[in-house]
Design a protein that fits this description.
Elements (H helix, E strand, L loop, with lengths): L2 H18 L9 E7 L14 E11 L2 E7 L4 H30 L7
Antiparallel strand pairs: 1-2, 2-3
Helix pairs in contact: 1-2
Length: 111
């Protein structure tokens, strides 16, 4: 391939690396919502109108899954953090493909 192709790959990789620096709120975790019933026997939650949703993140800590409660005021921020983590994974995959293409072009060592 041409030198222009290599330059294009390098330019794209530089853009992706710059985007990485914008992902400051990323959270590596899963999102779920829980509905619950209370201990009051006459509450409507016992007939199907359960309390909630309550919001949680599931994260890995010390090799174990942990559920972290997320207050309503932090829901959008937590969801943004999960979204940023997914973008991080996409960027890493794309950079990997770029680096493999550079290796194929024998341009990886000089980049």
């Amino acid at each position: 391939m041409s030198n222009a192709y290599v330059e294009k790959l390098l330019a794209r990789r530089a853009i992706l690396l710059k985007e990485l620096s914008t992902l400051s709120h990323l959270i590596h975790g899963s999102w779920f919502e829980r509905y619950s019933t209370c201990s009051r026997p006459n509450c409507s939650c016992h007939t199907g109108n359960r309390h909630g949703p309550r919001h949680y993140l599931v994260v890995q800590e010390e090799g174990r899954q942990r559920q972290k409660y997320v207050p309503k005021s932090q829901v959008s921020a937590a969801l943004k953090g999960i979204e940023q983590y997914h973008r991080l994974q996409e960027i890493v995959e794309e950079i990997t493909q770029i680096n493999l293409a550079l290796m194929k072009e024998r341009a990886y060592e000089r980049s």
